[in-house]
Amino acid sequence: MTTATVYAEFAAGEAHGVSPAYERLADAVSRDDELLALLDRLPEPKRQPNLLFGVVRWLGGPVDDPDTFRAYAVANWPTIEAAMRSRATQTNEAGRCAVLLPVLAALPQPLALLEVGASAGLCLYPDRYAYRYGDVTVGAGEPVLECAADGLTPPTARPEVVWRAGIDLNPLDVTEPADAGWLEALIWPEHQHRRDRLRAAAAVAAADPPRLVRGDLVDDLPALAAQAPADATLVVFHHSVLYQVPQPRRDAFVDLVGTLPGHWIAVEAPDVLGLTDLPAPPAPGFHNVLTLDGTPLAYARGHGQSMTWFAKQATARS
Hints:
The protein is α/β, with parallel strands linked by helices and 318 residues long.
C-alpha cells in the first residue's frame, strides 16, 4: 500500500466523523507529492498519520489548517523526521477498557493482566475505572468510560485483578512531564473529553504505578508472563499494537502467545490478524475486531467509544 493510500484511507475511514482537523490534513497529505516523498524516506511503520500529526502537535506546530500545516512541516522537516524516527504512536486510551471489560469479567477470576505495547499502562486498570454502557453503569469513581454497546448485556461487575504488568519497547511514565506531554499530543485535537480522561486515568496509575518492563513482545514476553501468580488467570492483551510490528515478528508473537497459559485478548484491525469471514461492520468507518484466543467476538471503534457484539456469548474456554 502506498503512503498516499494510507493517508487517504485514514482520512476516509478513521478520521471521518471523528476528527475534522485530521481528516482535512490526511486528505491533503495524500495528494501532496512533496510531503509524500519526505514521508517515504522513513521506514514504513514510521509513516503513519497519527505519528506525523502527533509529532507536529508535540512540537507546537499547527494542525487546524492544511496550508499552515504544510508550510510548517516542510520548513521543519529535519526536526519532524528525527522525532518520528525516535518516537512511536503510544496512544494510551483508557476508554479502550470498556471494550475489554465484557471479556475480562467473563473469565475465571482473579486475573493477572499482562499488556503488550503498554505505553504508560493506563489500560492495566480495568478494575479501577467506572463504565457507562447506555443506561447501565458498572463500578464507581473516575474516569467514567462511556461506550455504546450493541448486541450484548453489559457485565454487572468489574474484574478482580491481583497482578498487572506491561511490556513495551519504550515504556512511558505518566508522572514524567515529557511523557505526559507526548501522550496528550497523541490525542486528536477536538477530543477534550479524551484529554480529561487521560488525566483522570493518569492519576489512578500514579497512585499505584504499574510494573512496566522495557522489552520485545516476542523475546521478553515469556519471562514476564512466568512471573504472574499461578492461582490467577493470566490474560495477555493488546489494542492497536500489532499493526506497528513487521509481519515476521507479528507471526512469531501470535505463535508464542498461543503457547502461554491463560487467555489472549486482541483488539486489532481485521487484516492485522488475518481475520476473514467476518460479518459486515455496523457502520462506515474504521473498526477494530475484538478477539479472544483468536476467535472474533465484536467490532470496536478505535478509542473504545462503541462496540458491536456479533458472537453468541462472552464466555471463554477454561
